[in-house]
């Protein structure tokens, strides 16, 4: 069992098909199937089952996919710590310049996808605060990895950001027309 196989299992649970996982990870469906077979050999209980033409996770598969998130988080934390200078913790900073945008996205229910590793469970050392004294130019930049757009939560956030950007443009257009 390795990190890649766990990620594939997690993605299968989230995306719902081998084809979708292959597209998201930019590999072939047969490569996904092969990795799932190798993972299954390491686990004594079935992780997937066929439902018609679809391959779905069993209860054991769902439990392992959930653990995969914890493994990914732990490995990312270990890599982060390995990069830290001796005896000093590197700060983890996420800056979202337009607090109103964040507030609207969170209120719409998609905000959890902005920082999933940090919002899945409590992190007492993490403090989120809006930036003050920063001049917003009303530009919204959204950076995302192409394979993540297959996830519903990411699509929700991107859709909300586009909607908010259109409403800002519309308001600014009205302001210019009345001045």
Key features of this structure:
transcription; Arc Repressor Mutant, subunit A; 2 strands; LysR_subst-bd; two-stranded antiparallel sheet; globular; 179 residues; transcription cis-regulatory region binding; DNA-binding; 7 helices; LysR_HTH_N
What is this entry, summarized?
56% of the residues lie in helices and 4% in strands.
Structure write-up:
This protein is mainly α and 179 residues long. Mean pLDDT is 73; it is low at 92-99. It has 2 domains: 3-83, Winged helix-like DNA-binding domain superfamily/Winged helix DNA-binding domain (Arc Repressor Mutant, subunit A), CATH 1.10.10.10; 99-178, no CATH class. The chain has helices spanning 3-15, 18-25, 29-42, 59-83, 99-107, 116-119, 152-178, and strands spanning 48-51, 54-57. The protein has a two-stranded antiparallel ribbon. Helix 1 (3-15) crosses helix 3 (29-42) and helix 2 crosses helix 3 (29-42). It contains 7 helices and 2 strands; from the N terminus they run H-H-H-E-E-H-H-H-H. The chain is globular and about 60 Å long.
Count the beta strands.
2
Helix content: 55-70%
Instruction: Walk across the major sheet and give the strand order.
Output: 1-2
Q: How many helices?
A: 7
Kindly estimate the percentage of residues that lie in beta strands according to DSSP: under 5%
CATH homolog superfamily of the largest domain:
Winged helix-like DNA-binding domain superfamily/Winged helix DNA-binding domain
Sheet with most strands: 2 strands, antiparallel
Work out the radius of gyration: 20 Å
Q: Compute the average pLDDT.
A: 73
| Element-by-element helix/strand order | HHHEEHHHH
Uncertain ranges: 92-99
Shape: globular
* Secondary-structure content class: mainly alpha
How many angstroms does the end-to-end distance come to? Answer: 64 Å
Highest CATH level, the class of the largest domain: Mainly Alpha
CATH topology of the largest domain: Arc Repressor Mutant, subunit A
Family: Belongs to the LysR transcriptional regulatory family.
InterPro entries: LysR_HTH_N, LysR_subst-bd, WH-like_DNA-bd_sf, WH_DNA-bd_sf
GO molecular function: DNA-binding transcription factor activity; transcription cis-regulatory region binding
Pfam family, one: HTH_1
